[in-house]
Design brief:
By secondary structure, the protein is an alpha+beta fold. The protein contains 15 helices and 59 strands.
Length: 1087
């Protein structure tokens, strides 16, 4: 870290971070303690501060820029001398330098949109015109001296919300002249100097326009107009070299008007250039108008200059130091990362002194920023407290303190104000400004080493090994030894060479890189950005690398166990299920006993668990019949826990029954009877009438009548909250669920868990808004958890049957019915005795039999009416009478019912593939519908149709990210033979940017081989459209007869949409390397 960070300049400006280092000094972001604002401080390097010439140059820069007042010229606030040296305090512009943005675009292989390049040129042209009219020639116009200022809104209609600002007036030529700018001395950066400036001739404003021409050529084409290897070649290229190639030869979408503008700006003779900046601006405005009227063309990918970052820069991680514990590292794999005490943060820091939502890390095009979110505890960057809601650049090596935690950023250095080097030449002498050795502007030349990938994207399943063969080329004339460094994924995933590999001059070599994500619940799914960087022993400062996308698949696995395998009836057995996979899965719990002697309740299907989530299902066991006397029986039972991903675990247990009347009670009753019989015999033998007391002459009779009719009562779950208002109350709310800790303790919920019963609803929502029981996942006992009812099925979590048709919501979902629609109960459940094939009579089985003569009774009604008559006399009389009446019904056992097969619709006419959804061309409702876990904004709807032997599909994909790398992936198990992909299976991928790919399976369905990336086919087509905001459409057609002639009915299918940081899969639990987890789709015969 720079030693000057934290120092106070002139008892006023506290240096916070370095923005750039070049020219005569370094530029820092600083805090003006007097005016409480951010400023930029330019501090002259010590080696130049001692030389009068350079001191005078900094003074001239400050005095010259202070005279200028233009929106595209940086404003000067203060100038002075301090213990740290001479300084200039100027306006802080937060968008970074144009040089840094150009390097980013070049690394990403993207162009700046032409309109934005013209906007930058217009701003700088007007700034130069303003300075030239005041007799000031800048002499050093280059990308490093142009910084970008973010605006809340654009200055003009049609522009983007930013302004280009010209800075660094240290080399200006004043009209009245000075010793520093005398004829014969050359000042500037050779790459951008005009011919007359290279020769040391008299200059005027047209020299700056030449430099701006070089900047614009580089801005439009990502390359310099001239090629040279050293300073003398650079000067010769400007003064005597040929004109550069027209820009449209480098970038074909550049219109002729831009070629004309660049040619005039780069003219060798000043008289052939634009006369002034105002004239140049008029030409640039004309070019903007011509672009606005031109048809849209899809060319090389573009990137906005200050585009919002959806993917984080690769190679960064956060080191977290907790007192008393070894440091831990977190890979920064998303663009926004929240930190705080609350469980909903991306990084949870559960200690005193940390606010619930404390701070945020935000990726930018040039690195990372840290922002305090306004908590009372404060966020400290290098021991200085940050202002709330003020994003502050955070570079590698900086320390952030949050409570007792210290966080450090680790990653590649990125300089927001990355500069170009300026030189001063007099005769043959070159002196570099800003460094101790001469360093001319980097030229557009090939790096000595290069790294090549076989493809940009790779797919790997957790637990599987992926091998990537990298090709390394040594372009230099010297031998080297190299290895590779991997950033963006945990290092324990990666196996790289343990030693440097010899790479002779002019030769190539291969390095095998192995990546194996662990088969663990913590393994992330979806796209991971990976950067591969060469490490050279000869070129230690070389930064050559390549970026790739690693698509990590998901898997479902689980563990199940019984709370007690040996029970005494009646009793409850708890079945614990834990999803040990990394994607959500659906599970079912069913039970059976081979001897059919037990009644088992509480079985459940469609239990949805996220990766790492655990739940418990309680099974109630009782004997069907029980002997009055005897020693009891032992009955084995089995509990099956099954996953929709085809996994199954069977748990065994034993249930013991006892006699209805305990043996001890029988013996006790017998002893009492014998004793009473003996006393009665004695009384009769001796005729002792008063033995038990005198006779009673009065016979009062008291009759008590009890109406014991049992009535069915609908119970609404209630929460005991006596003397407490169930609204958010002041006080500590540790879990942030809207209920204070005091309230949670009173109602029995966990004050440290926002969702005590794990039903996907917070305790506060359940108590205050919905009315469900926060301690019961299934309040209405319809086998759907409350969260699924509210968030997924939109049913009433307080009603067992939302539609009122007599079918519970859970049973309706299991049968593939809409639980919100009333279904006429024509098919009813009827008890039918089915003999077994061997002739042995078995127990009745419940089957569905169509009938119209019987009305089902949903609730049994049992009406016992005993009447007890009690007469207080020596001969008590009791006359109980009972008339129980019961209407038996058969209740179906919930099972893990598979999804019904979608059916491909028959289309009379083939649809038009134009990227627009026309309802008249497609089925009335989607056959396939899914979304990312817990994110309804990413809903995907698929419509499937058949016309002759062609399969047509349209996919409506809601996607708020606008990321061009998002993609749709479709997998076909052609013959429905399950297992892993075989040669008849297909995998189609459509990327939002228009990239299309198809792969065929390899080998058989049991050889462990996956997909052939080298396969290609012209038997299919796809068209992409974006008819509305936040949605893209894919229309596809596949010639089945040519591409998949063996397509079975049904065939297997899986669909995935890869969003930025998310993966949506249909069916739930499906994985790309196992067709057994895919869904069957019916392929009908159409007329």
């Amino acid at each position: 870290m720079n030693s000057k960070i934290g120092r106070i300049i002139n008892n006023r400006y506290q240096l916070e971070s370095m923005l750039g280092d070049g020219g005569m000094g370094a530029v820092y972001r600083a805090h003006d303690r007097n005016l409480n604002r951010q400023v930029a401080i330019k501090l002259m390097h010590e080696q130049y501060a001692r030389q009068e010439e350079f001191r005078n140059r900094l003074i001239q820069e400050a005095q010259t820029a202070a005279q200028l007042d233009h929106p595209s010229i940086v404003r000067i606030f203060d100038f002075g001398s301090s213990e740290e040296g001479l300084f200039i305090a100027m306006e802080y512009v937060d968008g970074g330098s144009l040089r840094a943005h150009l390097r980013r675009l070049q690394q990403d292989h993207k162009y700046l949109p032409l309109a934005q390049g013209l906007q930058i040129g217009s701003h700088i042209a007007l700034a130069l015109d303003y300075a030239h009219r005041r007799g000031i020639v800048h002499r050093d116009v280059k990308p490093g001296n142009i910084i970008l200022k973010r605006l809340t809104r654009a200055d003009k209609p049609g522009e983007q919300p930013f302004r280009a600002v010209l800075t660094d007036f240290g080399l200006v030529k004043l009209s009245e002249g000075s010793d520093m700018t005398k004829t014969g001395m050359t000042l500037g950066t050779p790459t951008y100097m005009s011919p007359e400036q290279c020769e040391g001739l008299e200059l005027d404003g047209r020299s700056d326009l030449y430099g701006l021409g070089v900047v614009l050529y580089e801005l439009f084409t990502n390359r310099l107009p001239f090629s040279f290897q050293n300073l003398s070649e650079a000067l010769a290229a400007h003064t005597k070299g040929v004109m550069p190639s027209p820009a449209h030869e480098v970038r074909p979408d550049i219109p002729p008007i831009l070629d004309t503008i660049l040619s005039k700006l780069l003219a060798k003779n000043p008289a052939d250039r634009y006369a002034n900046g105002l004239e140049l601006d008029a030409a640039l405005q004309s070019a903007m108008l011509s672009l606005a009227g031109a048809p849209t063309q899809i060319m090389t990918p573009e990137s906005d200059i200050l585009a919002q970052v959806n993917d984080p820069p690769p190679g960064y991680e956060l080191s977290i130091d907790t007192p008393g514990h070894p440091p831990s590292k977190v890979q920064l794999t998303q663009a926004v990362i929240t930190l705080g005490r609350g469980a909903d943060n991306d990084i949870v820091l559960p200690a005193e002194g940390v606010s619930r939502h404390h701070a945020r890390l935000q990726a930018t095009p040039l690195g990372w920023e840290v922002q305090d979110l306004g908590g009372i505890n404060g966020t400290f960057l290098n021991d200085r407290r940050l202002r709330a809601d003020d994003p502050t650049p955070m570079t590698p090596g900086m320390r952030v303190r949050i409570g007792p935690y210290e966080l450090s950023l680790i990653g590649p250095e990125m300089t927001p104000y990355e500069s170009d080097m300026a030189v001063v030449t007099a005769g043959a002498t070159a002196v570099a400004l800003g460094r101790t050795t001469p360093s001319p502007e980097p030229v557009d030349q090939e790096e000595p080493l290069a790294i090549f990938l076989p493809q940009d994207s790779f797919t790997v399943e957790p637990g599987h090994r992926l091998t990537v063969n990298l090709e390394i080329l040594n372009r230099s004339a010297i031998d080297d030894r190299v290895t590779v460094r991997v950033q963006g994924v945990p290092q324990e995933w990666v196996s790289t060479p343990t030693e440097f590999i010899d790479l002779p001059a002019g030769a190539t070599t291969q390095i095998a890189l192995a990546i194996r994500p662990p088969r663990h619940r913590s393994t992330p799914t979806g796209r991971q950005r990976v950067r591969l960087e060469l490490v050279s022993q000869r070129h230690r400062r070389l930064r050559v690398g390549a970026a790739m996308s690693l698509i990590v698949g998901g898997f479902v696995s689980f563990e199940a166990r019984l709370s007690n395998s040996q029970i005494r009836l009646p009793d409850t057995v708890s079945v614990s299920i834990e999803n040990t996979g990394n994607v959500p899965g659906e599970f079912s719990v069913t039970a059976r006993d081979p001897e059919h002697a037990l009644k088992i309740g509480g079985q459940r299907g469609r239990i949805r668990l996220s990766g790492g989530q655990e739940t418990t299902v309680d099974l109630e066991l009782a004997a069907r019949q029980q002997s009055w006397l005897g020693s009891g029986e032992v009955y084995p039972f089995e509990v099956d826990v099954a996953s929709q991903a085809r996994g199954r675990v069977t748990l065994n247990g034993e249930a013991r029954t006892g006699p209805a009347i305990p043996v001890a009670l029988v013996y006790t009753v017998l002893a009492v009877v014998v004793f009473c019989s003996v006393l009665a015999g004695l009384a009769l033998a001796f005729n002792v009438g008063g033995l038990f007391g005198g006779r009673s002459t009065a016979t009062p009779t008291a009759v008590a009548s009890f109406d014991l009719t049992q009535t069915a009562v609908a119970l609404t779950p209630t929460v005991n909250a006596t003397a407490m208002t169930l609204t958010p109350a002041p006080g500590q709310d540790s879990d942030g669920d809207g209920l204070s800790d005091v309230q949670e303790i009173a109602i029995g919920t966990d004050p440290n868990n926002p969702d005590t019963d794990l039903d996907r609803l917070t305790d506060g929502d359940e108590v205050l808004r919905i009315g469900t029981n926060p301690r019961d996942r299934d309040t209405d006992k319809d086998i759907l958890i409350d969260g699924d009812e509210v968030l997924q099925f939109r049913t009433n979590p307080l009603k067992w049957d939302t539609s009122g048709d007599g079918i519970s919501d859970g049973e309706a979902v299991a049968r593939g019915l809409d639980p919100l629609v009333f279904h006429t109960p024509t098919p009813t459940q009827t008890a039918v005795v089915s003999p077994s094939p061997t002739g042995t009579a078995g127990p009745p089985t419940a089957t569905w039999t169509p009938t119209t003569t019987r009305t089902p009774t949903a609730t049994p009604s049992i009406t016992p009416t005993p009447t007890a008559t009690m007469t207080p006399s020596h001969t008590p009389t009791a006359t109980p009478t009972g008339s129980p009446t019961a209407t038996p019904t058969i209740t179906s056992t919930p099972t893990n019912t598979p999804l019904p097969n979608p059916v491909v619709a028959c289309l009379v006419n083939p649809p038009t593939l134009d990227g627009n959804y026309s309802p008249v061309e497609w089925p009335g409702s989607p056959q396939i519908q899914f979304q990312p876990e817990g994110d309804l904004s990413g809903l995907v709807q698929g419509f499937l149709g058949r016309n002759a032997n062609t399969l047509y599909m349209i996919w409506l994909i809601n996607d708020t990210s606008d990321d061009a790398s998002d993609s749709l992936r479709l997998y076909f198990d052609t013959t429905r033979n399950l297992g892993d992909p075989d040669t008849s299976d297909r995998f189609f991928q459509v990327v939002r940017d228009g990239t299309l790919a198809v792969q065929a399976g390899i080998g058989s369905n049991s050889d462990g081989q996956l997909w052939n990336a080298g396969y290609s086919s012209s038997n299919w087509t796809a068209v992409i459209g974006e008819p509305v905001s936040n949605q893209w459409v894919v229309e596809m057609s596949i010639d089945i007869a040519a591409e998949m002639p063996g397509l079975a009915n049904p065939y297997g299918k899986m669909a995935q949409v890869l969003y930025t940081g998310q993966l949506a899969t249909w069916p739930t639990g499906g994985v790309s390397n196992n067709a057994s987890t895919w869904q069957a789709v019916n392929w009908p015969t159409c007329p």
